[in-house]
Inverse folding.
């Protein structure tokens, strides 16, 4: 196995280990094609063959053609990786960044518009996983400035991205539309604004701005009878 094969196999194994559900081989192919921090649409036209993904993992991964699911080939693989290889594998930080980078592609900026709309989205097999799981990966990551800045960029620095993200969640996840501050509370991500990484003053000022614009109560207030925190 070459050095390149070894690094690629660690990316694959990290995705299978940390994914929030079992992935299809097609979802995995798209995930592996995404470049961080910058992905362009043409990157998704060059997917790694399923046979190559299985080959570089040296028998640790299997693909069931009937279900299209990709899993570890034996029940002992997961505990072995958790005990011995976690430092080398793609982490929740990487998976979270990948999902957010994917959702910020131009195709996903006008979810209810006339330029392809949802029919276009359904052509991108990784979309459903990214919408459902990006926040879960962020929550399971250690505090990491670059990842949290991606979240802020997604929801606060661009009104088009913010509206698209809220619309995709409402449509794809069959979830009610929520004010932005309440969406962050529900996804357990409000800590990014209330306790910015490395005391990031720009993010903290955004939190104050959001509170003022939504007439939301400051952190420390009960919502629906519960305390919301990370």
């Amino acid at each position: 196995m070459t050095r390149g094969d070894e690094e690629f196999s660690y990316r694959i194994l990290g995705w299978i280990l940390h994914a929030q559900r079992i992935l299809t081989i097609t979802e995995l192919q798209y995930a592996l094609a995404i470049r961080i921090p910058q992905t362009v649409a043409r990157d998704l036209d060059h997917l790694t063959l399923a046979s190559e993904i299985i080959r570089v993992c040296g028998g640790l991964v299997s693909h069931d053609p009937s279900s299209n699911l990709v899993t570890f080939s034996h029940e002992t693989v997961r505990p072995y990786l958790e005990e011995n290889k976690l430092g080398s594998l793609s982490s929740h930080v990487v998976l979270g960044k990948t999902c957010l980078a994917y959702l910020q592609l131009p195709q996903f900026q006008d979810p209810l518009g006339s330029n392809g709309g949802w029919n276009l989205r359904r052509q991108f097999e990784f979309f459903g996983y990214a919408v459902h799981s990006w926040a879960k990966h962020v929550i399971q990551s250690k505090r990491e400035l670059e990842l949290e800045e991606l979240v802020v960029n997604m929801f606060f620095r661009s009104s088009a991205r913010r509206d698209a993200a809220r619309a995709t969640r409402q449509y794809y996840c069959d979830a009610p539309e929520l004010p932005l501050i309440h969406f962050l509370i529900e996804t357990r991500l409000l800590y990014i604004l209330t306790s910015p990484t490395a005391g990031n003053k720009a993010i903290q000022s955004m939190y104050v701005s959001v509170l003022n614009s939504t007439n939301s109560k400051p952190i420390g207030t009960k919502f629906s009878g519960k305390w919301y925190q990370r």
